[in-house]
């Protein structure tokens, strides 16, 4: 009897809980589930904390404001450690729990799951990671980069140089981490170089990039007018330090999107003044959405992390990704009605038109053929305390970028 | 020519900084015969500790000294609580234990202090040191000097009375017991000193690349240094560090332009393979004589 | 159940040399085999595809490595590179039109050839230096894969497996993939169980215990070590190919990185060197414990059992996982297989206390 009782108690408790949960769900509308299955402990730690915090805080804000048409949004957050097998498990589990949108923020996990996602007809967003060619909507119907791919970023950075100092006759060094990600901008930049008539040369450094001195000795001898740095995490601040030590003016450095306040602190906030980076979203809390997050989420103590991160570069990127996802869910519910499914949400994404998250990001328009949303972005400059935009939201060399996307997507469609 | 000298000098300085990360590894191997795969994690932990103490408002040099004291204590603790209980077990299991410790620290330290990158400012400045058209990296210059200092200090240490005891213990545990030396205390001490060496490596590398878990990956260049120099020789650490640093800087400096990729890791790997094929016990390592 | 050794009497040498001389063990193996066969009917796709399937494949890989490390005493810290060679070459073969069965063999053979070439270093060195030599192999193979787009699959560095069929059965459904993996793991298990009883297996054990001594009694260390490297690399290569075709579906260089090599070594060591049960338990532990811990901790957190930051929640599984490895080693340095063995021996003679076998 005692044994039965012991087993019986938790069972009864579980039943009670399930009953309570069921009752609560019956009152509200069915929740929408997003799987934020990211890498909190390995390669992507430099960004994941702030990025995921931004995502969760925005979803909390949406729920505080009454959800999407009464539907609450539930985030399933798990660590995958950047390991594909853990990503696969987390994905399958979250899908079983009913998640219809996924964000892995890990290139190996995203690339490994692209086929599965399309087979299961659920949405995978790959902002600033994953396959660049996923912008081709017909080939990748369920994958949405939603933000500028690395190809678009390279094009926009080049365009900013063209409009400020001109590109012709310039010598550009691309100092990149020696990995597929680091080599990604090269084809696009080479084509732009042909069109605009400037010289370009790649300088790879060994992963993980904590030591790059030999590479930069070579870069200095090349006497570049402009230096692109294409890396992530600790390697980025090492790049900037090495550039400055080799007499390269920070103002001549252009960085991929992975350059944030923490890197500036590493280099020394004053030493990095003038450095320009690509940005996909505005930084700071000077924005209606961020103000509402501060007021309704952070101040009542509902935030998902350290409140000093609010408004940082990666935090805002996280917020922006979720504004797009929530907007897509809203549109899908409006046109297609509840309950929301993967195909409906996909249709919702493709209905997004001129959406700019109240000024947080460039107006994006996602169509069935363009899942990148136009590939907009801008260039901003480090002033010593903050990032100041030096160009408008723009897109550049669309034909070249588009061609790159098409060729790459065609290889995928052809079996790889 | 200036290019060559520049690659040479910066490579040598970087090599010295790798040697610093390798120093703790050698100290522990020398006394206890345990390859400590958690040495990289100790470096990371030391950097996080110094960062944390600094963020409490302590001046950086006090933070470093306090960090060194804490890491010394932590080294002693690890030996007392974990390693001592594994005495007499197969070495590979002890290696696995240090790997478990590496995983534990990789979770614990960023988990407690926060995983996002932190910075340690040593006030070194970014301006290059220019000698006759050769640009030297100021941070590496100071790092290299500190490394030389610490390695030199360890060499001298092994000439003191205490150090002689440590050498005796490293030569033969049983014989040391027989003449009344405390083997346990000696091994504990070497773990403590390895903790201090980790502070040196952690602070210098942390100031260059920022403080986050990736500091623990310094283990691999450190191991290359150790293999090349000889796993139980402090002189070997110095020479091995210089060799790995210089070869890993000069050869890629000329080769990368043709290879279309960074060849540094390839160079390091080939150095390791060649060393193993030509001199399996490293440049200064002791050749084991086996009994059948 | 009750004194399971009763009635076990060996009247001939073959009977004593049986793999499972005790009836209770045979029953246990039979029940497990049946469960494995019926698994697609018994458990949901989530557990079949995300737990059972990778567990089986990693077990095969761990057994391959255990052949080298456990039986032969040759440490190998670059085994993920061996698997990568198998995976990449089999995919390229299959894409070139070679039937899947032969692509698997081809992947295994390529891995065996390259693995043996690097293993040649083993003829000169042992212990920690061998670790370094194999580590260097890992870095060289990684470099080649990620720097030669023709191997890694173009600018996106992703190589998708083509659709294939195994013995005329198309490998597209989860069940089919599961059975292919099961078949390979069972083959590996049987091979491993039997290799210990061959002259090669005994030669390996002699080399492991003391190679000079083995040479004195007439075991050729050169040939034995080389054969061990070749066999293990072949098995590792096929396991890598199965992993690519049956589990990942698309391979990227990160799937076979250095950390995977370390995980494989951890599987062998935590499980127990040179033990089949250890291969299964070790692979299960290293592969599944972080996943289970992540879900458990997230579940407890969501149920409001504790309130800590997202950052610490994400790192807790690592802390517990590392702590468990340390704890197991302090508790039983010979691995999970030894713990299993202790339990088994206890129950073999239960309700009595001591047993001889």
From TrEMBL, chain A:
Residues annotated as signal peptide: 1-26
Domain Leucine-binding protein: 31-383
CDD domains for this protein: PBP1_ABC_ligand_binding-like
SUPFAM superfamilies in alphabetical order: Periplasmic binding protein-like I (SSF53822)
Highest taxon of the lineage: Bacteria
Keyword Iron-sulfur: no
Keyword presence, Signal: yes
Keywords attached to this entry: Signal
Official protein name in the record: Branched-chain amino acid transport system substrate-binding protein
Record organism: Limimaricola variabilis
Family: Belongs to the leucine-binding protein family.
InterPro entries the record matches: Leu-bd (IPR028081), Peripla_BP_I (IPR028082)
TrEMBL record, chain B:
Keyword list, A-Z: Amino-acid transport, Cell membrane, Membrane, Transmembrane, Transmembrane helix, Transport
Top-rank taxon, per record: Bacteria
Membrane topology term: Multi-pass membrane protein
Subcellular location field: Cell membrane
Transmembrane segments annotated in the record for this chain: 12-29, 60-78, 90-109, 139-158, 186-207, 213-231, 236-254, 266-284
Main location: membrane
Matches recorded under Pfam families: BPD_transp_2
InterPro entries hit by this protein: ABC_transp_permease (IPR001851), BCAA_transport_permease (IPR052157)
PANTHER family per record: ABC TRANSPORTER PERMEASE PROTEIN, BRANCHED-CHAIN AMINO ACID TRANSPORT SYSTEM PERMEASE PROTEIN LIVH
Family according to the record: Belongs to the binding-protein-dependent transport system permease family. LivHM subfamily.
Name this protein carries in UniProt: Branched-chain amino acid transport system permease protein
Automatic annotation (TrEMBL), chain C:
Segments passing through the bilayer: 27-48, 55-88, 100-121, 128-145, 176-195, 226-250, 256-278, 285-306, 318-337
Membrane topology label: Multi-pass membrane protein
Location(s), subcellular: Cell membrane
First and last residue of the signal peptide: none
Pfam families the UniProt entry points to: BPD_transp_2 (PF02653)
Domain of life: Bacteria
CDD domains xref list: TM_PBP1_LivM_like
InterPro entries: ABC_transp_permease, LivM-like
Keywords, alphabetical: Cell membrane, Membrane, Transmembrane, Transmembrane helix
Chief location bin: membrane
Protein known as: Branched-chain amino acid transport system permease protein
Organism encoding this protein: Limimaricola variabilis
Taxonomic classification: Bacteria, Pseudomonadati, Pseudomonadota, Alphaproteobacteria, Rhodobacterales
